[in-house]
Amino acid sequence: MIPNLPIYISVVFVLTTLATLFLFIRTVRSSGFEATRKKSGLILIGLTAWLILQAALTLNGFYNKNLLSLPPKLMLFGILPAVLVIILLFLIPKGRDFIDSLPIKNITYLNVVRIPVEIVLLWLFISKAVPELMTFEGRNFDILSGISAPVIAYFVFTKKNLSRNILLIWNFICLGFLVNIVINALLSAPFPLQQFAFDQPNIAIINFPFSWLPTFIVPIVLFGHLVSIRQLIKR
Question: What is the span of the domain harbouring residue 144?
Fold first, then answer.
């Protein structure tokens, strides 16, 4: 836990994480394929177990100890497993069937969680837990993805005033925003790879509950963009 951090910051972030979980499970349950909908319970159990595991590791100081280890523990035990699962889903036939059965409309709306995430990052900067470059006052443009997500979804799927090519371009742009902040976040964390923000490093992601950002919220958002891009290109 980060000392002297206002409790409301952690509360808002926990609620944002739970909202991300809810919206993703709702996306699975909204699939037009019964086989996919039946997987929602198992997926909920798996993701909940992952959140509990990451909470336990963080609360026990696992990511805070031996910060000079290579690769950093957070990357090895928090980020890498999530990335490998995403890669596996795209490689195996059943994984691709699952990916292609997810409704893009729900996935697009899911990106609204990026708004409270950016607000929390600003509060963490004020509390000296992350550097300014991780906020929308610095190098982070990710809040634009969250703000534009419901607008894009509404005009593409409800009003049908925008083409799916626009949605594809939007996904590539927002994926770029995501990759940008992930790189800056990791390179400003107190790891041997650190390149930025030595005066105020990114200590939030190695403390509870903010370790859920790189280990859960970011992978979910990343997965959503990759799913949408695959489906849109196929069509």
Answer: 7-234
